[in-house]
Write a structure and sequence with these properties.
Bound molecules: adenosine-5'-triphosphate
Number of helices: 14
Distance between the termini: 16 Å
CATH class of the largest domain: Alpha Beta
Number of strands: 26
Helix content: 25-40%
Largest sheet: 7 strands, mixed
């Protein structure tokens, strides 16, 4: 009987990520760059699968949501209109002894009142710090050539609102989805890939009639929470956190965060905001272009309200790793490390092994792996004891392993081994594809019972 151990730390997750090729420090051979990370062979698969999962949920499964891919560099007026130039700033303070920097809003009330750092030292005077990275477009670095690396992907959607309305069949209510890089010169970056200066967002901006904003806000809150559960995240590690009136961003009428319980505490995964007509009215004012929407059935012309769902992709990768990571005591003195990813996001779906290399078993296993490769991401491994091969796949979250043995050569069946339960089943080679597909489709993870198949 396997039992889960509970002392899961970030150190363990960071170490597994490096050891197995999920995530490396950026520019590793030069000693790394603070808070920048590179995705290795398994990490890039995990990230792109989470992105695909989100994209499918938000576009393919909705009639009325379309996608775009806007550029990172945008006209500088965009950021004046959005309010980022004047107010996208955090307040920073410094420990006057250690020179460590802190975000004012991340300190406790007592630390703020007494102007004392978490180390007990006096703090410097608070000062504002704009989070946008500035650069210059073209060879001459003067004021006229300043551009910003976008601090959010949302503005690329708003400035394309008219283009999308005019060129696609969308009618309000409808949404525009986008996934892409965003950049913020964060004062404090920590907790691995949780908060970095370069990150990826998955945003869907939903345009609604102003009289229907509350209804759609509630709708998207429920949809987005359900999405994480569908992704296999434990419901007990998810919760909503409402922004109080003094925490609301300058554009928001209402805001909820979806939070996840990371090993370092509850933190935001995604923001759901009612942005009203703030953005479209500001872009109307700054661009001089009419961004109103004409309802051709009622002849009403208006500026739509926007319900925003803004999730971090790179932060979702960390969530998936933290939620999936488990150490399990197996039998007396054995501990296995297992990543219980939803099979749809596991970097490798099926590991295929010959029990031994000889007697044609390796050739048969390769043949089966080549056939499965058409539909799943596969990995062939013939090295070491079979138990060790299973464990290596458990550690990177591979949900299914197939072993070819002598019986395979006689009756055309293989052993299908399930990551979560470690149970094994004899399956005919001809049935493998359908059996795996079915187990993925019916995958359900709850707090109490988290098993795939068998
Ligand atoms: P905070 O107040 O924590 O700095 P925020 O509330 O300003 O963040 P949003 O602007 O709502 O964050 O960003 C939407 C989502 O983008 C966040 O929920 C998060 O998943 C992701 N995100 C924001 N900043 C970062 C970052 N520096 N690194 C990684 N992901 C980020």
């Amino acid at each position: 009987m396997a039992t889960a151990k509970s002392d899961i730390t970030m150190e363990k997750i960071v170490s597994l990520c490096k050891r197995r090729g999920f995530i490396f420090p950026s520019s590793d051979i030069y000693g790394g760059l603070s808070s920048a990370w590179d995705y290795g062979p398994l990490g890039v698969e995990l990230k792109s699968r989470i992105q695909k999962f989100w994209w499918r949920e938000m576009t393919q499964l909705h009639d009325e949501i379309v996608g775009i891919d806007a550029s990172i560099l945008m006209h500088p007026r965009v950021w004046e209109a959005s309010g980022h130039v004047s107010s996208f700033s955090d307040v920073m303070v410094e420990d006057t002894v250690t020179n460590e920097r802190y975000r004012w809003d991340h300190l406790t009330d007592e630390q703020r009142e007494t102007k004392t750092s978490p180390n007990g030292n006096p703090l410097s005077e608070p000062r504002k710090f704009n989070l946008m990275f500035k650069t210059n477009l073209g060879p001459v670095a003067d004021d006229g050539s300043i551009v910003y690396l976008r601090p959010e992907t949302a503005q690329g959607i708003y400035v394309n609102f008219k283009n999308v309305v005019q060129t696609s069949r969308v009618r309000i209510p409808f949404g525009i989805a986008q996934v892409g890089k965003a950049f913020r010169n964060e004062i404090v970056t920590k907790n691995f890939i949780f908060r970095t200066c370069e990150f990826e967002q998955m945003e869907m901006q939903y345009f609604v009639h102003p009289s229907e904003d509350t209804r759609w806000f509630e709708y998207w809150k429920a949809e987005r929470l359900a999405y994480y559960e569908k992704l296999g995240i434990r419901p007990s590690r998810l919760r909503f956190e409402e922004h109080g009136p003094d925490e609301l961003a300058h554009y928001a009428k209402a805001a909820f965060d979806i939070q996840f319980e990371f090993p370092f505490g509850w933190q935001e995964l995604e923001g759901i905001h009612n942005r009203t007509d703030f953005d479209l009215s500001r872009h109307t004012e700054f661009s001089g272009k009419d961004l109103t929407y004409l309802d051709d059935q009622t002849n009403e012309r208006y500026l739509p309200y926007i319900i925003e769902t803004s999730a971090g992709l790179t932060r979702s990768v960390l969530m998936a790793l933290c939620d999936a990571y488990e150490e399990e005591e197996v039998g007396e003195n054995d501990v296995r490390t297992v990543l219980r990813f939803h099979p749809a996001i596991a970097p490798i779906t099926v590991g295929v092994f010959p029990l031994v290399k000889k007697d044609g078993l390796a050739e048969k296993a390769k043949e089966i792996e080549r056939a499965l490769r058409e539909d799943f991401s596969t990995f062939y491994d013939q090295g070491g004891a079979i138990g060790r091969r299973y464990r290596r796949q458990d550690e990177i979250g591979t949900p299914f392993c197939v072993t070819v043995d002598y019986q395979t050569m006689e009756d055309g069946t293989v052993t299908l081994r399930y990551r979560d339960s470690m149970e094994q089943q004899r399956v005919a080679v001809a049935e493998l594809d359908a059996t795996i597909r079915d187990a993925i489709r019916t995958y359900k993870r709850t707090d109490a019972h988290r098993r795939i198949g068998a």
